[in-house]
Amino acid sequence: MNPDEGPLNFVPPDADRSLGIPVAPLVDIVFLLICFFTFTSQLIQIQKDATVALPLMKSPQAEQEVPADFTVNLRPDGALTVDGRPMSPAALGPVLAGHVQQARAAGQRARVVIRADHRQKFARLDEILEVCRRTGLAEVIFRARGEE
Q1: Which of 9, 34, 109, 129 is the most exposed place for a label (fewest CB within 10 A)?
Q2: How far from 26 is each of 23, 32, 97, CA to CA, in Å?
Q3: Is 53 left (phi over 0), alpha (psi -120 to 50) or beta?
Q4: Whether the Cβ atoms of residue 118 and residue 110 lie closer than 8 Å to each other
Q5: Do the strands 85-87 and 80-82 form a parallel or antiparallel pair, or are they unpaired?
Q6: What is the reported pTM?
Q7: DSSP SS3 for 84
């Protein structure tokens, strides 16, 4: 009998062995996701200043927060922090100007978020906006809290 003419065998010789699901790759992926979300949430918390009480927004809230490259916090005492670092208003201009140049070189639009305390005077906020105008920022985003 020719071996090519024998009956077809669809069952491999070790068919009695149970098939297992490989768990190691699944554990690796879950671990990576946990690390990613942990590090991302810490970065977001660094940019938010707990001493800044945002003003109340009466208009409908935006559907989604637009991420920004820089977050400027204007505290109730008038102090500025940029991405968690204290900064003087005089030093804010060169930092934002450098950011605008980097964004333009990359072909992107520069974006900054301003989180001003609701107890702050508009004149103080206007100083920051003037620095943004001088540096040529394409987008200035204000953060506010919605009605509870």
Answers
A1: 9
A2: 5, 10, 45
A3: beta
A4: no
A5: antiparallel
A6: 0.55
A7: coil
Crossing angle of helices 122-135 and 89-105, in 10° steps, is: 40
Both tokens of residue 19?
């098939």
Residue 141 β-bridge partners: 113
Which of 17-26, 54-63, 74-83, 109-118 has the least mean pLDDT?
54-63
* Strands 111-116, 85-87: pairing kind: unpaired
Q: CB of 72 within 8 A of CB of 128? A: yes
CB 72 within 8 A of CB 52: no
Q: What is the pLDDT of residue 31?
A: 93
Residues 6+ apart with CB under 8 A from 98: none
Question: What's the length of the chain?
Answer: 148
57-82: string of b/e by CB count within 10 Å (b at 16+)?
Answer: eeeeeeeeeeebbbbbbbbeeeebbb
Q: Name residue 109's amino acid.
A: R
